[in-house]
């Protein structure tokens, strides 16, 4: 049965896409997971993979052409299958499966499309959007509208937690919110029924009944209540740097805070008036609640209050008594686990380590930072050195595509940043063309956005090489898992003072270990060794990076 593949919505603001290139041609065999085309959105050029298998029977949008979201992009089916009805807009048996959706959401999506034709005029089904290129499911963090509320085009309907960030989702329609399909805290696959908008009082039973009938067929996260929070779970927040209590921004008696921040504050028993906001114009955001440490005065009443048992200390255990707690994994944590497992078990990793003399780098950094309004870190120096080394060793700046290897002439450096929920990798674009100070400014800006969960999908896409630095935590040497589709990742350790031999004499020196993890499918050992030698030369002679 032929399947129509429509132009996907690859970003939250995308209204149309341009086909940059087709990686398959009519007549080619297509497997699930194959890259069909590269599509240019309003934010980036992204790879679009197939969720179906068969033969590519028709291409609806040629290279260089633009078309709105949901326009006919391609048709996949059996070799020689008649698709004339689909091309002429007919309603063949394949029509209900017209939208390409992940297999886990297929039954529910088909049911929604089947019911769409019988919906009253003006009623629109809003599905879970794909808000990042790797998003497969989303969690509704909070609803900003409730059933019965009026909705205007551009209004924020909900905050949705993706695999990368918590993002606001705005409505592209207007009317009344008639139905909410995914409750706060629940997760569902992309294209699941999120909400229904239409004229007030409209009958939406036609959209709800088929979805209910196929609910057992769709793969969704169980709607179980989250495990209760305990003092053990709150420990990371308590270890953070205390935030001094300051008057929250109040305007007309209202404290400015995001809906998600309000919800978390209520769950944790935190008064918003005690929290200092780090958002725009002092607005309190989620990260402020997570980092908030109450003062002794504010803790005392909470501990004695019967209404806040979650804030009391962990229960005292008798000797030999077992105890544990469970917390629901965040969307980010689940995707991190999936991506790391895929990388580790599909890419044959190997590791090479060098030890760089950091005496000259330390002296150069001190001299650079003595200039007014200038700040450069050792990590910035490593990023610059790696970017320059990649230009001399293009084999390391590659992507494995199965039948071919992509050589990237541009250098986009991914920088691993730890956040409370896990790890994100913002990208410094064209790092080889930037100065040390420009790289430093870009990294500080991106890291700040990462910690505040304000990174956009475009700021986390397109890396060709990644650097992970645990040196600031005193880790001297470690290995990392490759951030696919990169072919390599560099692990940076701490600078250690130790005895070294120089000019035949043992003297005090400063060294730093750098470990390169490589995908052996694209990078051979000799190539990686040559790259590390070039990298070491740049780091040990920083003046060469300033030329």
List keywords for this structure.
547 residues, alpha+beta, Dihydrolipoamide Transferase, Chloramphenicol Acetyltransferase, four-stranded antiparallel beta sheet, 12 helices, 28 strands, 26% strand, globular
Structure description:
- The chain has about 550 residues and is α+β, with helices and mostly antiparallel strands.
- Among the domains are: about 70 residues, E3-binding domain (Dihydrolipoamide Transferase, Irregular), CATH 4.10.320; about 210 residues, Chloramphenicol Acetyltransferase.
- Helix content is about 25%, strand content about 25%.
- The strands form eight sheets. A six-stranded mixed β-sheet has the order 19-28-27-26-22-25. A four-stranded antiparallel β-sheet has the order 1-8-6-3, with no helix packed on it.
- A hairpin with a 2-residue loop joins strand 17 and strand 18.
- Helix 10 crosses helix 12.
- The longest helix has 16 residues.
- The relative contact order is 0.09.
**Strand numbers in spatial order across the main sheet:** 19-28-27-26-22-25
Q: Level of helix content? A: 10-25%
| Helix run count | 12
**Average pLDDT, to the nearest integer?**
80
Judged by helices, strands and strand pairing, the structural class is alpha+beta
| CATH topology-level fold name of the domain at 333-545 | Chloramphenicol Acetyltransferase
Strand content: 25-35%
Question: What is the CATH level 1 assignment of the domain at 333-545?
Answer: Alpha Beta
The radius of gyration computed from the alpha-carbon positions, rounded to a whole number of angstroms, is: 27 Å
Tell me how many strands there are.
Answer: 28
């Amino acid at each position: 049965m032929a399947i129509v593949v429509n132009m996907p919505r690859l970003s939250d603001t995308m209204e149309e896409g341009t086909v940059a290139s087709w990686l398959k041609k009519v007549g080619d065999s297509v497997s699930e997971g194959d890259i069909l085309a590269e599509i240019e959105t309003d934010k980036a050029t992204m790879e679009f993979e197939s969720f179906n298998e068969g033969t590519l029977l028709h291409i609806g949008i040629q290279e260089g052409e633009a078309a709105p979201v949901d326009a006919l992009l391609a048709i996949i089916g059996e070799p020689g299958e008649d698709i004339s009805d689909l091309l002429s807009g007919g309603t063949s048996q394949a029509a209900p499966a017209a939208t390409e959706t992940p297999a886990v959401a297929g039954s529910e999506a088909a049911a929604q499309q089947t019911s769409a034709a019988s919906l009253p005029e003006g009623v629109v089904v809003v599905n879970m959007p794909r808000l990042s290129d790797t998003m497969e499911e989303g969690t509704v963090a909070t609803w900003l509208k409730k059933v019965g509320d009026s909705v205007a085009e551009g209004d924020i309907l909900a905050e949705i937690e993706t695999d990368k960030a918590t993002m606001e989702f705005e409505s592209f329609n207007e009317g009344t919110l008639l139905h909410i399909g995914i409750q706060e805290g629940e997760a569902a696959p992309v294209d699941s029924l999120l909400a229904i908008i239409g004229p007030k009082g409209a009958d939406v039973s036609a959209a709800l009944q088929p979805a209910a009938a196929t609910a057992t067929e769709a793969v969704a996260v169980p709607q179980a209540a989250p495990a209760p929070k305990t003092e053990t779970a709150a420990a990371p927040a308590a270890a953070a740097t205390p935030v001094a209590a300051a008057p929250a921004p109040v305007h007309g008696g209202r404290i400015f805070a995001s809906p998600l921040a309000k919800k978390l504050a209520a769950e944790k028993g935190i008064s918003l008036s005690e929290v200092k906001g780090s958002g725009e114009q002092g607005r309190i955001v989620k990260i402020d609640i997570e980092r908030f440490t109450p003062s002794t005065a504010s803790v005392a009443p909470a501990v004695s209050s019967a209404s806040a048992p979650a804030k009391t200390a962990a229960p005292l255990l008798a000797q030999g008594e077992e105890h544990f707690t469970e917390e629901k994994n965040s969307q980010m944590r689940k995707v991190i686990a999936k991506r790391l497992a895929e990388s580790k078990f599909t890419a044959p990793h190997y590791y090479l380590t060098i030890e760089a003399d950091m005496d000259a780098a330390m002296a150069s950094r001190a001299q650079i930072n003595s200039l007014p309004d200038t700040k450069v870190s050792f990590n910035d120096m490593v990023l610059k050195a790696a970017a320059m080394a990649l230009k001399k060793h293009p084999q390391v700046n590659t992507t494995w595509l199965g039948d071919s290897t992509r050589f990237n002439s541009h250098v986009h450096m991914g920088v691993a940043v730890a956040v409370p929920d896990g790890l994100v990798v913002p990208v410094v674009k064209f790092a080889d063309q930037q100065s040390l100070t420009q790289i430093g400014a870009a990294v500080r800006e991106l890291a700040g956005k990462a910690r505040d969960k304000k990174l956009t999908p475009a700021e986390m896409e397109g890396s060709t090489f990644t650097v992970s630095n645990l040196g600031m935590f005193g880790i001297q040497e470690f290995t990392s898992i490759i951030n696919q589709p990169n072919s390599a990742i560099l692990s940076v350790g701490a600078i250690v003072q130790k005895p070294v031999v120089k000019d035949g004499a043992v003297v005090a020196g400063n060294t730093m270990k750098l470990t390169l993890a490589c995908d052996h499918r694209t990078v051979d050992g000799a190539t990686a060794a040559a790259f590390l030698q070039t990298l070491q030369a740049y780091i040990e002679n920083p003046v060469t990076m300033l030329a």
